[in-house]
Amino acid sequence: MDETIPLLELSDAEYCAEVLQLPVDKSEVELDRELVAKANALGLEATLPLVSSYERDTSMAVSDSGESTSQERTFSTASDGSASASLTPHSSIFGPPSPDPAKLDAAPTPSKNLSFSPYEKYLAQDGPMLDPSRSRKSSTAGGESSAQSIFSVSTRRSLSSFRSRMKLRKKPPRAFGPALSCLSCRKDVGKSALLQNLPCGHVFCADCLRIMVEQATMDETKMPPRCCMPVPAANIQAILETAAQEAFLKAVVQFNTPWESRMFCSNASCGEFIPHRKHVDPGAPFSVACRKCHTRVCSICRGEAHPVGEDCPEDWEVETAPRVGDRPGRKRCYKCRGLVECRRGSTPLTCACKAQFCSVCGGVWDRAVGCPNVCNGEKELGRRRDSDEEARPAEGGAPDDEEAERRSAQHPAIRGLQLEQDQAMRRFCEFMAKMKTSMEMRQWRQKTSLAVKETQQVEGLTDKHGKATAQLEDSQITEEMELRSTLEQSERSIKVRIRHMEAYCDGLGRNPGGLEMPPRVVTEQNLRDLGHQYNLRDDMERQHQARINMMRDRQSKRMEELLERQKAELDRLADQQQSERDELEGTFKREEGTVDGVFEARRSRFTARWNLAIEVLCKELGDGDGVKYALVSAPSWPNAGKADGESTENGT
């Protein structure tokens, strides 16, 4: 399998060097961990979104989606994952999940070596396959157990019986006769290699067995495909192409899932089956994403996924629980699906199964970075500001706030931090515009290369067709010339024959040999033969012209067939080129979506990092000076439409 090449526009090393301006031996993860550790040391509860590789599995066939548990029968996306699983910013706060850049180019081309383990598990649940050789061995072993031991009787007869039984055990299973006809269509096949031998002893041709597998793919009642016993995975893998194998394995995973646990895409135009995954989305553990249209579906109500932090309205156990402040009094565990009581100010919540999750949004809690949805980010910062304003006395609150804001606005450290953040935002916008321009140029080069390739293909095929047409015309001209030559030779032969026969018949009653020779006798048969030759000569021109016309009709038909084949080849080439263009356009759209998703996630991390840095600096200054510093606002990002063109102007 060819190794996939990641997108150059998403290089983390270049991003860290140009935008974050980090040294070579330091990553963005280390930068965030240092900031979080610094905030925790000051007594601030802070989290930052985790930097991840945006991995998203795109192969349904090789996943372990066929496994279903009792928990899945109640909630079809029950996870056996742990809180230490790799966190990815796939929640709605970061936008839609971004595909893996390294696997982007390989998405349309599936693997040629697909694992049939889901089908084997399905057969194991359906019932053990019968092995004729195994059954014969077991019956032989049963016969041996009832036989008399050779050590009890020391006779030649018992020894010979032991040897015969040993030969029977070593003897390979009896093979069926070399049947060279399909059991279904009864067509004779010239080579036995073209037939598929099933464990029951019957043989099928590849076409009939393929039809059987396709019917099982479409109809659950015919799954697994069987003759007398289920068809083994090796036979199915031998006759199906990669796309058909994927469709069959998808059907196996779907049919192996109980009806009450099956989940389908809520998009009316999609309706794709969503298999069970072993690991949940840390940001939204109760929602799953459709791999076809990327629509997120709630695993409880089977409808469209709810916003982050909002419980499913159909989860009545959570909805009917008494509330603790502005939050529900119970939260459902993402792992065991049990209920955990919420206490005021408790973040995170710990279930009896040792799973930890956020008490606000229910996201999987990570010990290093906390909540994956950054619940302690901008919203928590605004909540702290509101709580500080409410706790402050009404009569002295306004002057203190104004003094804290003035103190923060005039402090050189805070102003320097704001200047650094403005410069970082300008670098980010310039880098994003640069990467998008680079991606557009690369895509333009790919389009140009594809256009040149298509032109060469059309010119080559047209040249090939022209040569074939000219060759056929030359052969037809040569054929007509040979036919005319043959007809002329036939005409000359008839004329010579008539001249000789006329000379013979003109000597009637004469004696050309003298008196010694008998007189020449011209019979009536000679005269009839001469008349027949006259008829052939008179009708010769018409017959020759008819043969020439028949030959020209055949030649015209061959030319029409050749032109039709050439037109069909051009049509197939045009369809192939259109398919390649559509595939390239789809790849470009996926690349653009990936780049937008990655930069949106980076922008969200930037915002969370800026807010936390401002809070840490204000806390340090307040602890050092003994006075309060108001939290200033982080730089605001330019609009999406102006991010590329006006990034430099906004920064300056």
From TrEMBL:
Any one of the GO BP annotations: protein ubiquitination
Record keyword Zinc-finger present: yes
Keywords, alphabetical: Coiled coil, Metal-binding, Repeat, Transferase, Ubl conjugation pathway, Zinc, Zinc-finger
Biased composition (Polar residues): 60-91, 138-148
Coiled coil: 556-594
EC number, UniProt record: 2.3.2.31
Gene Ontology MF annotations: ubiquitin protein ligase activity; zinc ion binding
Pfam families to which the protein is assigned, alphabetical: IBR
Domain RING-type: 178-379, 182-227
Class of this enzyme: transferase
Catalyzed reactions per annotation: [E2 ubiquitin-conjugating enzyme]-S-ubiquitinyl-L-cysteine + [acceptor protein]-L-lysine = [E2 ubiquitin-conjugating enzyme]-L-cysteine + [acceptor protein]-N(6)-ubiquitinyl-L-lysine
Bias (Basic and acidic residues) ranges: 382-393
Region (Disordered): 59-110, 125-152, 382-417
KW DNA repair (keyword) present: no
Name of the protein in its database record: RBR-type E3 ubiquitin transferase
Protein species of origin: Tolypocladium capitatum
